[in-house]
Design brief:
alpha+beta, 4 helices, 9-stranded mixed beta sheet
Amino acid sequence: MCDYSLEMYRSRPARAGEKLTTHRFPSGSIGLTDPGNPDCAVCMTSGTTVVLSNLPIHLRQRLDVGTVKATFAHLDGGPHHDGVIFDNGEKFTLQQVGPNVEITFVDVVAKVIDAALADPNKFGSGDTGSGGGIAPREVVTAGGH
């Protein structure tokens, strides 16, 4: 998902294992980008597990951490909805997190989906390996895509 405020920009979905950065777009909205391509918004699915590093000092002090695991989420209650929920229950929009925070997409389920899309034969119906015989179409559909 990408915040509504980023719809005017080119965008693409996030990929498992990818290291992204929060970036302030010309509109003033903060979203995710690939550090090598800051003009393209990277959209992440709500519920994705992420690791944040390079947090601003006010968040590091409040959470008493430097690097922290969180869940990417759609947050209600304001004009910006992309955000993160930390294990202690605290919620922050990306606007509150600020620019230049590193976010690594670590969701294990997404890695399985990416692997299935990269090598459909590995996850075909006749395979009894780690894919459990699930066809790629079924894996993607199960995630709501």
